[in-house]
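Example 3.2
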Amino acid sequence: MARVERYAKFEGTARRALPIAVVGGAGYVGSITAVGLAHLGHRVVGVDINRERLAQLREGVAPFHEPGLAALLQVNLAAGRIRFTDDLPEALGEVQVVFVAVNTPRRDNGEADLSHIIDVARGLGEHLQHYSVVAVKSTVPVGAHLTMRRVLERYGRKEGMDYDLVANPEFLREGFAVHDFFYPDRVIIGGSSADAREVVRELFEPLGAPIIETTIENAQMTKYAANAFLAMRISFINEIANICERVGADVKDVAHGLGYDRRIGHEYLRPGVGFSGPCLPKDLEGLVRLAEDAGYEPFFLKAILEKNEHQRRQILGKVYGLLGTSLYGRRIGVLGLTFKPGTDDVRNSTAPEIVDYLSRRGAEVLTYDPMASPDAVLAGRRVSSAYEAAAGADLLLILTSWEEFRGLDFERIRREMRLPNLVDGVNALEPSAMRRLGFTYVGVGRP
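Structure, written as tokens:
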């Protein structure tokens, strides 16, 4: 229960207990938001169409790996502050605030798919029973609120009378999302109605974080800009790493020195296989499409995306550099499938894409990840340990920086492998230590 105790000081700190619905409440952002608001003392109902996840949440089981979520969920279920349903009309019966936390996936052309947002707007248009503040957590392009407004107008709903729209973008990091809910760097609230902004401000004031009130457009753009900036930092340090390899410098020390500059800082200066996951690539591509639709050619943003694709090719180039031009019949062990440590999420992760590439080139690929969702359909053969992945391998490839991998018995790993080739795509290990053990070690930007 230690994970609950660190948030105990927030329990019941709401100025008043408001009835709140979270649409998409069984999803990642939705469930964190619902549980967090309930812990502050509000009466929360999570609404979703995923009945399997709803059943898990009702039993106090988190439907995905997120430290602290299950324990906090159980506390608030026991306190009667949170419940879950698939009945939207019933959920909207008494609510004063509706949070929208549905997914906005990427279309093939890069733009955000707003179909789930539109579905929510239709549901609200049909079933809102009295005035409510509608706060959108989902990441949407600038102007998405106009689409919601048009849908609501078709049902005779008038902004300012039946509802007010507010943009309240989320900035949760997978693996740290519960912490980030209670200890945000800032809370962004965008909306044209001062009264609606004040309602949302009241919800988050107990957290003690800076609260920035602005327009809906500014709030939406802030979310896109934040993720684009983080992606830029990753692509930047990967570019520096690739130069380091060619001039005899060590990117680890270079990044360390950079980070002490207060104008720069240490975060997102870890070179590797590039950025991936459910947010950064999607949101950066969405921003590119938004710019193009507005008549602007975003050369710099496109360069970030191109660099990210280039970085994946760099990692594959290291594999070819050790194994030669043909991978047919080679056995390759892969450690790490999730897009980063601390999560079970493999959505849009670079690692499965690399595994798929290697498999299509005729390699036998054995993969191990300590947390990756067992339901994920992935190329290669999943095994139950790093040692099993290394058995008989011609090369071992590390693609996620799990702490577990640093503690492996690499003498045993070396004995298990057929050839001692090690490509450390995330710089999880020390080159000198691996070479002393007899590995042919290749990292990213390391001598």
